[in-house]
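Obj.: predict assembly geometry.
Materials: sequence records (below).
Method: joint structure prediction, all chains together.
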Amino acid sequence: MFSRTTLARALALPIEHSSARSASTTFRACLHQATSTTTTTTSQPEAPLSATPRAQTSIPIQQPRFLTSSNSIPQTRADVPLNKQPVAPTFDAPLKVSQSLLELLPNLTSQKPHFITAHLHDRPYLLTAGDQLRLPFLMPKVKSGDILRFNRASVLGSRDFTLKGGAQYLDERLFECRVRVMGFESEPLRITEKTKRRRRHVQKVTSKHRYTILRVMDVKVKTAEELLEEGAVVVESADSAANVELKA
Amino acid sequence: MSSYFRITLMRSAIGLPRRTHDVLKALGLKKRMATVFHPVSPSVAGNIMKVKELVEVQEVDRRLTKQEVHLERKPDPGYYVEKRAGTELRECRRA
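Observations (raw structure tokens):
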């Protein structure tokens, strides 16, 4: 019983606090605020010391906003923002590269061939030019002969050097990875026999999945000159957008 | 400024008393990893305290729609179509 009352008191605090902060409170809210303040002030000495400051210092977390193309809040499964769809990106800010990256980049770009760890739907694929890749799914809305660009990579490298993205992906303006859709493959028909209890019948379930086959056309790491030509901005410290480092 | 509790059911209430199930039902949590939003109020806070071992709570600024909660987990596709199959051929013919 005691715990319940103290809890209610502790939890009444943040509401009263927040309503006091906002200027546009309705009359009813003001009433409620007045009552709650009186109760809290009378019972202040009994309140547990640990609960009070925690409740007062709480600030609601700002949640990320995903806006669809029509600038509305996504409601249904069809509302997917453009950055989560396979469309060519547009950039607002120029690429930021650190001085150390510019100095070390020639080591990587001069040493060919390159490999890339490209992420499709967050699954990593280790690729080099000339590789044939069978995706574990049928890629929608592509035909054989189409050229795709892979734009999410965690690692770029050559024999001796690697460029690592760290926690986030590498900036897509640092590299070019093109693949061509070769066609579609289907697995042999699989038949699974299912039996139910007390039923003299075997149910046969068939499945025949289709997969997309791709060939990697090129994996290219852009040189420092190319990056600067495309409008990259040199940032002194390591707080650049491409938070990367070269490791021998 | 109004704020909301963002409540996610991390552990199921299977094998727990009837009361616990009822509290989760009152909060609108039906299955694990389900997320609901409730305005910050003493009654909701009391409900959360009843099932504090099962849920994860954040205080957030607004309600998210179901699709927005889904989009938080959705990864980027990682590809886009640069050139369609026919366009290369047409360019060659023109040249």
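Conclusions so far: The longest strand of chain A covers residues 175-186.
To do: check interface contacts against the pulldown list.
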